[in-house]
Specification:
356 residues; 3-stranded antiparallel β-sheet; single chain; globular; 15 helices; mainly alpha
Length: 356
């Protein structure tokens, strides 16, 4: 693709077949070709639809970049003939968004159309999407109870769970970011916690390492939450033997093989579920607490009269979004829509019109 030819339709189809295999099977194929390839492939267990779709997206993005880079190489070397470049433009045509459609539209015959134009259907998450009122109700309920009322059997577990949920509510961090925090990420003098980008961390034994999606950032904690964190460190130190590279949130199981090992995302989801059940709310995913944080931040921005640029800079840093992310505009727009709706309802009420 760099020096002239794009992948053919047949080559792309072969690639799409193989990306549906699990890593162990792909590793086997890279070492040596099985004597009976068909029998080997028929015995392979496929990955989930979600995993395959992510692979398709990553591969498509890489191929688009590789083709664009190749175009520059061809132009620089004088090989960019009209015929060749026209063919490459067709094959490398990226998807484009259109008004009224949730999915991109891909040019017929393009690599993008072949790779991501027909993603596999995924099974819907068992976690319900909560309404803003339900998530707010969760936060109010959680703040009104003592942790031992929710987790009475183990005081250390109750302390850890309270701290983790308070950090989710107070920082708006992603679950993966909180689970990747190490003791060295605590800025003691400033009562701040750092979300550090550490991909493929050799100290992380988890199969799927939790990581930051974008940039590092430091966020200040309230005095109450910082004191809670210091209290938890006394418990955590006993489990991790004062390891400076230890993860902040660890397992409290009695099994010595797992005690002191970093927590999994599944454990956090279970924790949120337990609070939801106690509050009489349909269980939802932990990421909903991040949405609550952003909505409250957008509300504050409008109340204090921030400019759009002030809002964008603050939200981009606090939430760890990329500089080109559309999320700041999305959330500020949502807040504006809600405020306009309230004003219209107030206007109708003043004019004697019935409002639901």
């Amino acid at each position: 693709m760099v020096f002239g030819s794009c992948l053919s339709h047949e080559q792309v189809e072969d690639m799409l077949y193989y990306i549906g295999l699990k890593r162990k099977d792909l590793a086997t194929l890279t070492i040596a070709r099985p004597a009976d390839l068909n029998r080997f492939l028929s015995a392979c267990e496929p990955v989930s639809a979600g995993t395959e779709n992510l692979r398709r997206i990553y591969i498509n993005n890489y191929l688009m970049w590789l083709g664009s880079y190749g175009n520059l190489v061809l132009q620089k070397t004088g090989q960019a003939t009209d015929n060749l470049m026209e063919q490459r433009r067709e094959r490398l045509s990226p998807g484009r968004s259109t008004t009224g459609r949730r999915q991109n539209v891909y040019a017929l015959g393009s690599i993008s159309q072949q790779v991501v134009g027909n993603l596999r259907k995924t099974i819907g998450s068992r976690m319900q999407q909560a309404t803003p009122d339900e998530v707010s109700q969760f936060a109010v309920f959680f703040s009104s109870l003592h942790r031992n009322d929710l987790w009475p059997k183990n005081k250390d577990r109750a302390l850890r769970n309270e701290l983790l949920i308070k950090l989710l509510l107070q920082t708006g961090g992603r679950v993966s970011e909180l689970l990747a925090i190490k003791d060295t990420d605590l800025v003691t003098g400033k009562q701040m916690v750092q979300f550090a980008r550490r991909h493929n961390d050799p100290d992380d034994p988890r199969k799927n390492n939790p990581t930051l999606k974008t940039y590092d950032r430091q966020l200040r904690l309230s005095r109450e939450t910082w004191e809670l964190l210091m209290e938890w460190l006394d418990v955590q130190d006993e489990l991790t033997a004062h390891n400076p590279q230890a993860f902040l949130f660890v397992n409290l199981t009695r099994d010595p093989r797992y005690a002191g090992q970093p927590m999994s995302r599944m454990a956090v989801d279970q924790m949120i579920r337990e609070v939801c059940v106690a509050a009489g709310i349909k269980p939802f995913g932990a990421h909903q607490l991040r949405h609550l944080y952003v909505r409250e931040l957008a509300k504050l921005a409008r109340e204090q009269g921030w400019t759009n640029e002030e809002w964008r800079k603050a939200a981009t840093y606090l939430l760890g979004w990329s500089l080109t992310s559309k999320m700041p505009a999305l959330y500020l727009g949502e807040a504006a829509n809600q405020e306009a709706d309230l004003q219209m309802k107030q206007l109708w009420t003043e004019r004697g019109l019935e409002v639901e």
